[in-house]
Description:
single chain, three-stranded antiparallel β-sheet, five-stranded parallel β-sheet, alpha/beta, 45% helix, elongated
Amino acid sequence: MKYLNILIIEDETPLAEMHAEFIKRHSACRQVWLAGNLEQGRMMINTFKPDLIILDNYLPDGKGIELLQELSVTKYHGEVIFITAASDIDTVSEAIRCGVFDYLIKPVSYDRLEQTLERLSHLHKVQKQTEDVSQWQVDEMFNTFARIQAKPTMPIGIDEITLKVVQDAFSNIEAGYTAEDIAKKLGLSRTTARRYLEFCTKEHFLQAEIIYGKVGRPQRIYRLNPQIN
């Protein structure tokens, strides 16, 4: 495995520190530096020669796309990942032309960033395998740039840890619970419990049915989908 020295160029210090804390957990990370503007970024690139640059576009002294263009001309040997609010097609297209490894739009999903780091690690592994490559190895290198083969990002409002807790509550295939039951059992609000239960139903992890009692409103009962076993 190639261990990466990483430079984050981001003027929002709390956000830069959040990026750094997340990236430091990755097994391929060796060192992380922070720069708050383009001038600092250029100086640190020349000094430290990072393997990977995490780059914002909107910076106090210019745009990150300008630095990316400079790196393209000077044959920078590392990779660049854009993490920015810039979503206009001109910026995205220019970043692709300049060889950016990935482009993530703020607010960034850290699951998505982890996928990118995994792809980068995989690319380095393929590159180290041999000096002469076969066609399938060339295809794999191109696919590492072009495709994300990891699990999809969770939708807004669904956290993986909470989702696992909700799913674990259905260990008994015969048991049926309402949203209120799950809320009490797990210490969640009823609204939150219902959101996760409906997500699990949409993903076919659970089945839902309406039970009509003699008194009161009908209840929506959730049960484990027997087909997942």
